[in-house]
Design goal:
Order of helices and strands: HEHHEHHEEHEEHEHEHHEHHEEHEH
Structural class: alpha/beta
CATH class of the largest domain: Alpha Beta
Shape: globular
Number of domains: 2
CATH topology of the largest domain: Alkaline Phosphatase, subunit A
Strand content: 15-25%
Radius of gyration: 21 Å
CATH architecture of the largest domain: 3-Layer(aba) Sandwich
Largest sheet: 7 strands, mixed
């Protein structure tokens, strides 16, 4: 369903939809056990929900395409990620409530570790503390570019920061400096157009100054920037889907993405209990809730199979409390797969289940990849999950005569 059809068919109703996203949920079999992280986890509560749900696997972007977190979530919000895509910088900036101006170009930054030859040995600098990030950003903020261009730097969380270039004639059509793999050196930014080349030159000048400043700051002795973008003007969920949407997300990037499609994003602490507390406090204010859980993805990216299993079990221990709130529609899924065996995002379809009183529950009795593959939904585009939820919530009118 495209947004034009959604706008035509959507209607208000006294029903509530909850989308619970375990970031990077999908996995691959462990070479010794043959079980994915979800298959190895003890998940009696999610298994029980699966028995009451319609189940399947989602494809975030397209078959064989490995999605970033932005496209993966946009699809779940009902936005075709091939139409609505945005660089990571704007998402991080929006997530920390940075006041982006129309001409600003934002990028997401990582502090990283390089060896004596300039080769990247850790893309996240050991996940330094947020406090250390703030200290380093204070130093980076002293770098001046001159020539009418400002470099504004703000800390985000742990190893992440936002770089914003402010000035006239800047372009976001420039290349990242992050090769997004270990064993490589940071890249020089490049631009194809005249404005792009000029903007890339500013980025490279800033990175050079930053590298000199960070040289003795190991493990954060270098940085990488990617996802250059300007703030988009996208259709809002309230207008398209007739929803009052809220994001219950602790990490700034996900709050930022949700805000770009019109969700309100109240402050929330880092624990699952904090998310559920905010959900309860705001239950009467909204009718659509996006609840985000990051730690499954972080464990997968670190290649830590056992920790990812533990984080899935952590969710299972409390998911019953979410079900007891009795949303009219409850979806449990991920934005993409992050198998610990790959230590990276992957193209593999993502576990999905939807529970509502109107669901024709299928014969799936376990919430894991092999079982869900037998579900009645099959393998389907993630962008269809919100229209499906809208139908189950009585929020879509009949199409045609």
């Amino acid at each position: 369903m495209d947004l034009a059809l959604a706008r035509e068919l959507s209607q208000e109703a006294e029903t509530k939809i909850v989308l619970f996203v375990m970031d990077g949920l999908g996995g691959l079999p462990h070479p010794e056990t043959g079980r994915t992280e979800l298959g190895a986890a003890w998940t009696p509560h999610m298994d029980r929900l699966a028995k009451e749900s319609i189940c399947g696997l989602t494809v975030p972007v397209a078959m064989g395409v490995t999605p970033g977190s932005g496209p993966g979530h946009l699809a779940l919000f009902g936005y075709d990620p091939l139409v609505y895509n945005i660089g990571r910088g704007v998402l991080e900036a929006a997530g920390i409530d940075f006041d982006l101006q129309p001409s600003d170009v934002a990028a997401r930054g990582n502090f990283c570790t390089i060896d004596g030859d300039g080769v990247i040995t850790d893309r996240r600098a050991g996940r330094i503390s947020t406090e250390r990030c703030e200290e380093l950003v204070a130093g980076l903020s002293e770098i001046s570019l001159g020539e009418g261009v400002q470099a504004l730097v703000e800390p985000v969380r742990e190893h992440r920061f936002v770089l914003v270039l402010r000035g006239d004639g800047l372009s976001d059509e420039i290349a990242d400096t992050d090769p997004q793999r270990l064993g490589a050196k940071a890249l020089a930014s490049e631009g194809a157009s005249k404005a792009g080349k000029a903007t890339a030159a500013h980025v490279n000048a800033w990175v050079s100054e930053a590298q000199a400043y960070l040289a003795d700051k190991s493990p954060a002795n270098m940085l990488l920037v990617r996802g250059f973008a300007k703030r988009p003007d996208w259709p809002q969920m309230a207008d398209v889907f007739r929803l009052r949407p809220a994001a219950v997300a602790h990490y700034p990037m996900y709050r930022g993405l949700a805000k770009l499609v019109g969700m309100e994003a109240p402050a929330v602490g880092p624990a699952l209990e904090d998310s559920f507390a905010v959900l309860r406090e705001n239950w009467d204010r909204f009718d659509y809730f996006f609840v985000h859980y990051k730690h499954t993805d972080a464990a997968g990216e670190d290649g830590d199979y056992d920790r990812k299993v533990e984080k899935i079990e952590e969710v299972d221990a409390v998911i019953g409390a979410l079900a007891e709130m009795e949303p009219d529609v409850l979806m449990v899924t991920g934005d993409h797969s992050t198998p610990a065996t790959m230590a990276a995002h992957s193209w593999h379809p993502v576990p999905f289940m939807l529970r509502s009183k109107w669901a024709r529950a299928d014969d799936v009795d376990d919430f894991n990849e092999p079982a869900l593959a037998r579900g009645s939904l099959g393998t389907f585009p993630a962008k269809e999950s919100l229209p499906l939820a809208m139908a189950h919530a009585g929020r879509l009118r009949k199409y045609g005569a």
